[in-house]
Amino acid sequence: MANAQIAYELELMKIRFSEQLLRTKARETSTTQDYKEFLDMIDEMKAQIIEAYPDMPKVMALVIHQHAKRLIDDIWNSPDEQLQSQCRVKLAQFIKVVYDDTAAVLVNEQHAKIPTRTLYHIEKLE
């Protein structure tokens, strides 16, 4: 009888672990998709910056892009939820500054040679 009970409990554990593994795989797949989507979006952001500031050295757009990528990496590589949340706030603030700079040029047709607020924001965080 004891062997039957142990076999039953082992089978339950196998099922539980198998289902937990499936959930973990699904969650990680979704997380990876979100990460790829973020990277695609900052690629689009870089293209918009280049469009808004055609006279700006392209390396500046790359610096802005790399800063955004680092912020995204910080979110995904942070060990706990509180640090991830802080990183998300930093990314949101940065994206807002980039948007404000590029919108001022593209939408409001305010001409500038470089995205000064964006570059200042990067300097401030470094």
Could you spell the SSE succession in H and E letters?
A: HHHH
* Separation, N- and C-terminal Cα atoms: 66 Å
Backbone shape: elongated
Which consecutive residue ranges, at least 5 long each, have pLDDT under 50? none
Helix content: over 70%
Structural class: mainly alpha
Please tell me the overall pLDDT. Answer: 91
| Major β-sheet profile | none
Count of separate DSSP helical elements: 4
Question: Can you tell me about this structure?
Answer:
By secondary structure, the protein is mostly helical. It contains 4 helices and no strands. The protein has helices at 2-52, 58-77, 81-106, 116-125. The longest helix has 51 residues, at 2-52.
Any descriptors?
126 residues, mainly alpha, 85% helix, elongated
Task: Give a short overview.
This protein has 126 residues and is an all-alpha fold. It has helices at residues 2-52, 58-77, 81-106, 116-125.
Topology overview:
Blueprint: H1 2-52, H2 58-77, H3 81-106, H4 116-125
